[in-house]
Amino acid sequence: MVRIAVLLAAPLALAACVQGGANSAPVASGSDGALFVAGKFADTLARIDLATGRETVRVDSCATPHELATSPDDQYVALACYGGTSVDIFRTVGLEKVKSIDLGENARPHGIVWHANGDLYATAEGRKSVFWIKDPLGAAETFEYGTGQEGTHMLVVALDGRHAWTTDLGSKTVTRVDLLTRRAPQSIGVGVEPEGIALAPDGQTLYVSARGSDEVYAIDPQSMEVRKTLAVGDFPLRIAVRPQGDFAVTSDLEDGGLTVIDLADFSVARRITVSSPAEADARFQVTILWSPDGERIYVAETKSDTIAEVDFATGTVLRRLPGTGGGDGMAIVE
């Protein structure tokens, strides 16, 4: 089985950016807005214009950037600097860096959420903790919460900001952190190498994908009881819930596809092929992101320096956008 360490290999040559071959020009679409892509091999942050499919600006970022999050007003994008200790903030127009918030020695921030309340939340994998960054564009006060778990990697935050949940790769656990009372965190074992995590729009169900056991789990976010388990594709690295709350998809890294889950009855609705079996290892799909209207899915193909734009209704790959430098983390503004 492929392991995530492969993703940290040396930078790869720039590959085809769009559907139709290496020498094709980017194609226009009906999409509006911009896609932001972290190039974790090249230490870059790029802005892709969704109307034209072209990269409009790329800047140096920080060491091994991973996940991204946009501010509630869409004016800023925050970047988790996994190879360092900071969360860096850039303007969405022009990508000018406006702030760097240091989280301390060996932080290695990875998962990141810019909450509707205006605050930032990030995992610090090297410190086995979660950080709450209040007023990130102002005073940027930081509060740290230990999980006690190895590999605190991805996170989601409750709609009311009271709790955060993390996937802990090394410990094979999911952890609930109480952000207000600081009660002891609660961790449960979930499959093998749980990594992907998503919260239903109504906040009533937590979904976790375990890449080592090829399963997705529906968990009660308060009792931390596993309600249901579902077998999905091979190596489901990420899971993302459609904004409408009716479906979720997993990025199945080793078979080049997406598993579509009907959340009404927690069943596999269909499979979407993004890459052929022969292409799967060459493209290496990682992060997935829904468009705000739920009509498209963006799939980071980290090895081939591309982002696949997939039509959800038909499962068609509409085009391939630039993902230069090992594009992984993504955020969108429309």
Which residues sit in consecutive blocks of at least 5 with pLDDT less than 50?
A: 1-25
Count helical runs: 1
Total count of strands = 28
The main sheet comes to: 4 strands, antiparallel
Describe the structure.
Keywords: Signal. Residues 1-15 form the signal peptide. InterPro entries: Haem_d1_sf, Host-pathogen_enzymatic-act, Lactonase_7-beta_prop, WD40/YVTN_repeat-like_dom_sf, YVTN_b-propeller_repeat. It holds the Pfam family Lactonase. This is YncE family protein. This protein is an all-beta fold and 334 residues long. The chain has a domain at 64-189: Methylamine Dehydrogenase, Chain H (7 Propeller). Helices cover 2% and strands 50% of the residues. The chain contains 1 helix and 28 strands. The strands form 7 sheets. Strands 3-2-1-28 form a 4-stranded antiparallel beta sheet, with no helix packed on it. The protein is globular. It starts with 33 loop residues before the first strand and ends with a strand. The model is unreliable at 1-25 (pLDDT under 50).
Keyphrases for this structure?
globular; 334 residues; four-stranded antiparallel beta sheet; Methylamine Dehydrogenase, Chain H
Quick overview of this protein structure:
The protein has 334 residues and is mainly beta. It has one helix spanning 277-283, and strands at residues 34-39, 44-49, 54-60, 65-70, 76-81, 86-91, 97-102, 109-114, 120-124, 129-134, 141-146, 152-157, 163-168, 173-178, 186-189, 194-199, 206-210, 215-219, 226-231, 236-241, 247-252, 257-262, 267-273, 285-290, 296-301, 306-311, 317-322, 327-333.
